[in-house]
Amino acid sequence: MARWRKTRGGVTFVGVLANEPKQFRAPDRSLIERIASGDERALGDLYDRHGRMTYALAFAIVRERADAEEVVVDAFGQAWRTAPQFDPARGTVAAWLATITRTRALDLLRARGRRARAVERAARGDVDGLAVPLGGVAVAPDREMEQREASGLVRRSLAELPEAQRRVIELAYFGGLTQNEIATELQEPLGTVKTRMRAGMEKLRGSLAPLFALEGP
Amino acid sequence: MTDHQWLELAVPYALDSLAPEERATFEVHLVVCAICRAEVQAFRDVTGVLAQAAPDATPAPELRDRILVEARRVRPIGRGRAGIGPWLAAAACLLLALASGYAYVRARGALRRADAALAAERDKLAARDSLIATIFSPDVATAALAATGKPPSARLYWNPSRHRVVMAVFDLPPAPAGRTYQLWAIAKGKPVSLGVFNTASDGRLTAALDVPPGLAFELTAVTEEPAGGSPQPTQTPFLVGKVAAD
């Protein structure tokens, strides 16, 4: 299990516990290979690993249970059909699934004509809850614990950003807005939006760096 | 646009926050700019984990079954040639037609076609992603094809592990009627066709072509050939480029 240590400059990955159960560590990539060869059980395993994350992401975007479920079914359907095209050089399996899910969720909002409402809500700051610290963590399998630690780091890193920078990034990622749309929504000059987005992402790039080394392909 | 201005687009591109036309222009630039590609990749790592900031939400337990049931309706793309499955499916359809009547089957067919059209659209997007992924691979080799530094020019990305090349062509007028352009890989002095292509009216093209697995080549060349292409080049190449690691 990954261990994190708070240091002055941020969080540093300090090592892996020796008693890590290896059977939980079969790489996501081997699951994708099995899915590409039509193994339904591997699709079930993929869902067991990443279903919660994809559902939470879908729900954060569409804000309705039934719609979020539809998005997740669609997203795993697309993963199932296009698994042979997955390229580990481009990012992790989790990132690939997140991209598919986010796209499907934003498509659904647009199709339902609900995007405007979602955007308005996001601009008002209703998505501030995204950067809240984690609640109590019950005893969980190692893998789940690891994911919780990772998501805790992402949330803390977002929460540590200046409010204005975080808002711009959240509107882009969870709201699906272009920079121009964000500028209109926040009634800020486009240049300001661009600068904030870049500054915020640069900070995240630094504070989240340990995750990229940890996750591997 | 200056290099600096291009580089500024890497963050919004990785966050999928560019307007469609801006994104398309930047993607053409990405084909020729390794610096911007590296920048995009670095920020993609960040966007790749942003999903984990979503507030915890627990899906209904039935969701897993729904996903598996959906999966049974379609098979993954690119699983190689079909075996007996489609024949069984066809036989099943025939039985169904006999048993349930024509109207039912027709309605079902329409639904399937709509499903297939939707899936095709999504897969088209996936194909575009795949094209970009071919370029982003760390083991990609590149070749700059130019006629003594003057236009037209082309840039080629060869991804050996995916058996693909992605080619970006600039300032090349479309081939005349009845003619086509053909890309060749020169392996040990022997040309092997990688496929035919043509440019759009603006003289540009970005395309992915398959490379025969195991084929290693040192040079690439482009010739003009009769429509449909030739088994061997019939003209002197007007573009030639040496393959080099990126």
Briefly note the structural class of the backbone of chain B: alpha+beta
Strand content of chain B: 25-35%
Largest sheet of chain A: 2 strands, antiparallel
Gyration radius over CA of chain B: 23 Å
Order of helices and strands of chain B: HHHHHHHEEEEEEEE
* Percent helix of chain A: 55-70%
| Mean pLDDT, all residues of chain A | 79
Q: What's the β-strand tally of chain A?
A: 2
Number of helical segments with 4 or more residues of chain A:
10
Strand content of chain A: 5-15%
Strand arrangement within the widest β-sheet of chain A reads 1-2
Quaternary assembly: heterodimer
Describe the structure.
The complex is a heterodimer of chains A (217) and B (246). The longest helix of chain A is centred in the first third of the chain and has 23 residues, at 40-62. In chain A, helix 1 (28-36) packs across helix 2 (40-62), helix 2 crosses helix 4 and helix 8 packs across helix 9. Chain A is mainly alpha-helical and 217 residues long. Chain A has a two-stranded antiparallel sheet with strand order 1-2. Chain A has ten helices and two strands; from the N terminus they run E-E-H-H-H-H-H-H-H-H-H-H. Residues 78-85 of chain B have low confidence and may be disordered. Chain B has helices at 3-8, 10-14, 20-32, 34-50, 63-73, 85-100, 102-136, and strands spanning 141-147, 150-159, 164-170, 179-187, 190-197, 205-210, 219-226, 239-245. The longest helix of chain B is centred in the middle third of the chain and has 35 residues, at 102-136. An eight-stranded antiparallel sheet of chain B has the order 5-4-7-8-1-2-3-6, covered by helices on one side. Classes of the chains: A mainly alpha (217), B alpha+beta (246). At the A-B interface, helix 2, helix 3, helix 4, helix 6 and helix 7 of A face helix 2, helix 4, helix 5 and helix 7 of B.
